[in-house]
Design goal:
Blueprint: H1 5-8, H2 17-28, H3 31-43, H4 51-62, H5 72-80, H6 85-91, H7 99-135, H8 146-159
Length: 160
């Protein structure tokens, strides 16, 4: 058995964090798991994940790919490269050098996107319900079918 940290470091010396971290990893985390998580990190994309979920996943997996993230600028670049198209587009005109700045701007973008989507949904429902008011007499027509009824019920549910 390889000696413990007690045999490597004198009792009166503090254990440097890097020594503890590397010793802990080599003892308790298999190399295969480290490699799997590193690959998962390298393949990570935001997709339709909410921004904060993506940030948490990115930070969690980044622990397994510490050699990929050597500087703050590298971390920002890796993060930006994995953002969904909408967020990436909204941030494309900004020069961002820190994760703090990136997170702040991305959260603002996501909040704005939600507001836009809610407004579009509200307008669609309003237009749809106005169309229903002008076409309610079609219900007695033979052309009215179950599919139309289902769409009308769904629109009313969504609007509530």
């Amino acid at each position: 058995m390889v000696g413990s940290y007690k045999t490597l470091i004198h009792a009166d010396e503090p254990i440097p964090w890097i020594v503890f971290k590397e010793g802990f990893r080599s003892t308790h985390i298999p190399d295969g798991l480290m490699e799997l998580k590193r690959k998962e990190f390298l393949n990570l994309k935001q997709g339709d994940m909410p921004f904060m979920d993506f940030l948490n996943r990115f930070n969690y997996l980044a622990r397994y790919a510490h050699e990929e993230i050597t500087t703050e600028a590298r971390k920002v670049k890796l993060y930006r490269d994995r953002l969904n198209l909408e967020t990436d587009y909204a941030l494309s005109a900004h020069e961002i050098y820190s994760m703090k700045s990136l997170v702040d701007k991305a959260l603002r973008v996501e909040s704005s996107e939600k507001k836009v989507m809610e407004e579009q949904k509200r307008k669609w429902l309003q237009e749809f319900s106005q169309g229903l008011n002008t076409q309610h007499c079609v219900c007695n027509d033979r052309r009215f079918n179950g599919i139309t009824a289902t769409v009308i019920k769904l629109a009313h549910k969504v609007g509530q």
